[in-house]
TrEMBL record:
The keyword Flavoprotein applies. This is FAD-dependent pyridine nucleotide-disulfide oxidoreductase. Transmembrane segments: none annotated. Residues 353-457 form the Pyridine nucleotide-disulphide oxidoreductase dimerisation domain. Disulfide bonds join C43-C48. The lineage of its organism: Bacteria, Pseudomonadati, Acidobacteriota, Terriglobia, Terriglobales. Residues 7-327 form the FAD/NAD(P)-binding domain. Its cofactor is FAD. NAD(+) binds at G187, A188, G189, I190, V191, A192, L193, E194, E210, G274. Keywords: FAD, Flavoprotein, NAD, Nucleotide-binding, Oxidoreductase.
Length: 464
């Protein structure tokens, strides 16, 4: 096996790896991007793109069921799951193909296989990467720059009997060509809630099992209760302070014994108990790259691992695990390496959207975090029913909340449970990025009746 030399090797073609490979290649570097599964990584193939495509179908089913609320009568509503899955596959295939085309056009070399630091090291100042393809063939790449973007995969929890039960995870549930009669969902994080609501809308009875007393522990209590009440109102069953002890059965007949001795029966089981980093195949110990106690790769504010010439980007370096965070990791590394920049992770404002319906949008600090940080704050909060457009659309469930610094009047953060909450939160984010006081949004003239118009009302509530 002869050595192949590259200026840069990227392991994993996630949300950071693909654009970084393109930029490095366009800058004249020879770049190899190594991928063990599918180009584009989780988001494109088994994450955001397919799940939001399916959620769009689920929302149509939801609105169809509610058509009489709008004075429209229709016939019987049926979920054609093979057609729903076919639509999803088409959109995923398109995104996957564009990723490949983009890499090829930029001149990056795509190598399909599992990559990791080789047992036999390269000479000083260089790294040897061993790549094993699915057919068993091996290649050895030599480089001075390695970018680790290998992401995460679903956790399989320790649960008696799980080895013998055909359970679903976030990937396999998106290939299900039937609507389960009764889906049991283990875990109540973001993945769990998005799929639970989606499959309920497709027609399944759904039971969510949560160990704790509330959903989404990173959100404020009132935001969580608001989201919980909406899901309960829609007909999902959520069992709090409930732990699974043992599972048995097969698809169509799953039995879940709980620690309190009760038993649950369902037809399908979705395990959504979190994700863990893809690090085992990297053999990080061979080059001295450090990991934290959860296995995530440790990096500094510039995404450097501490070993010269090795960076880590995206989910593999630990939470927050979002596509836009990974993409911004790419921008930080590219700006600093190729454009003499000085971008840092700590300059980034956290923003994300949980795609339940209504969405849960979040930017910056919430009340819990601001109080913990000892900030002097004022809290603005209004129900979604104050939004004229939401009433007109019969989508008035939810609430808006913003946290203001008492001393400066600057907005520290906001949370929204509500129709297009992710979009409305982006308006607040822009104000925060621009360093605007809350009074600017309070007094701004928005078109009537847009959803953003409610920002007048939200911030007026502080002074009324
Ligand atoms: C169901 C689901 C829905 C989601 N929805 C959203 C959403 O709506 N919005 C959002 O912001 N985020 C969402 N996420 C999270 C988002 O997908 C990730 O945060 C994002 O993909 C981060 O990607 P990454 O760049 O870290 O790597 P990934 O996209 O995970 O890519 C890593 C790639 O590395 C490959 N790999 C692993 N080990 C090796 C190796 N040794 N050699 C070669 N290749 C390797 C993997 O096969 C994978 O393709 C969702 C996740 C899931 C599971
Ligand atoms: N809309 C989005 O942006 C989006 C969508 C999906 C995923 N993601 C990203 O992916 C990450 C992972 O999401 P996730 O939902 O897989 O993980 P998570 O860590 O958010 O949630 C895991 C859940 O499983 C529960 N749990 C853990 N072990 C358990 C056990 N043994 N039995 C029962 N419950 C158990 C936890 O209490 C928690 O409720 C998210 O944090 C997010 O960063 C983002």
């Amino acid at each position: 096996m002869s050595d192949e030399r590259f200026d840069a090797v990227i392991l994993g073609s996630g949300q950071a790896g693909v654009p970084l490979a393109k930029d490095l290649a366009k800058a004249g570097q020879s770049v190899a991007i190594v991928e063990s599964w599918h180009i584009g990584g989780t988001c494109v193939n088994v994450g955001c793109t397919p799940s939001k495509t399916l959620a769009a179908s689920a929302r149509v089913a939801y609105l169809a069921h509610r058509s009489s609320d709008f004075g429209i009568s229709g016939g019987e509503i049926h979920t054609d799951m093979p057609a729903v899955i076919a639509r999803k596959r088409q959109i995923v295939e398109h995104s996957n193909a564009s990723n490949i085309k983009g890499l090829e056009k930029a001149g990056a070399t795509i190598i399909m296989g599992e990559g990791g630091f080789a047992e036999q090291p390269a000479s000083a100042g260089e790294y040897a990467i061993a790549v094993k393809a699915a057919d068993g063939t091996e290649r050895r790449l030599i480089t001075k720059q390695v970018f680790l973007n290998t992401g995460e995969r679903p956790v399989v929890p320790e649960l008696k009997g799980l080895d013998n039960v055909p359970f679903l995870d976030s990937t396999s549930i998106m290939e299900l060509e039937e609507v389960p009669d009764h889906l049991i969902v283990l875990g109540a994080g973001i993945v769990a809630l998005e799929f639970a609501q989606m499959f309920h809308r497709f027609g399944a009875a759904v039971t969510v099992i949560e160990r704790g007393t509330r959903l989404l522990p990173h959100e404020d209590e009132d935001i969580c209760s608001c989201a919980r009440d909406i899901l309960l109102e829609d007909g999902l069953e959520i069992l709090f302070e409930t732990e699974a002890a043992e599972v048995s059965g097969t698809t169509g007949s799953i039995r879940l014994k709980l620690k309190d001795g009760k038993e649950l029966h369902g037809t399908h089981l979705l395990v959504a108990t979190g994700r863990r980093p893809n690090v085992e195949s990297l053999h990080l110990d061979r080059v001295g790259v450090k990991q934290n106690e959860h296995g995530y790769i440790e990096v500094n504010d510039l995404l450097e691992t501490g070993v010269p010439g090795i960076w880590a980007l995206g989910d593999v370096k630990g939470p927050p695990a979002f596509t836009h965070v990974s993409y911004d990791d790419y921008r930080i590394v590219a700006a600093n390496l190729l454009h003499n920049g000085s971008r840092r992770v700590s300059d980034r404002t956290l923003v994300y959207t949980i795609y339940t319906d209504p969405e849960i949008g979040r930017v910056g600090m919430n009340e819990m975090e601001a109080r913990k940080a000892g900030k002097k704050i004022r809290v603005a909060s209004v129900p979604m029913s104050y939004m004229a457009r939401a009433l007109e659309m019969a989508e008035s469930r939810g609430m808006l909340k913003a946290i203001i610094d008492t001393e400066t009047d600057l907005i520290l953060g906001a949370s929204i449970v509500g129709v297009e909450g992710g979009e409305v939160i982006a308006q607040i984010q822009l104000a925060m990025l621009g360093g605007l006081k809350y009074t600017v949004l309070r007094d701004a003239v928005f078109s009537h009746p847009t959803k953003s118009e409610v920002l007048n009302t939200l911030f007026m509530s502080l002074d009324s």
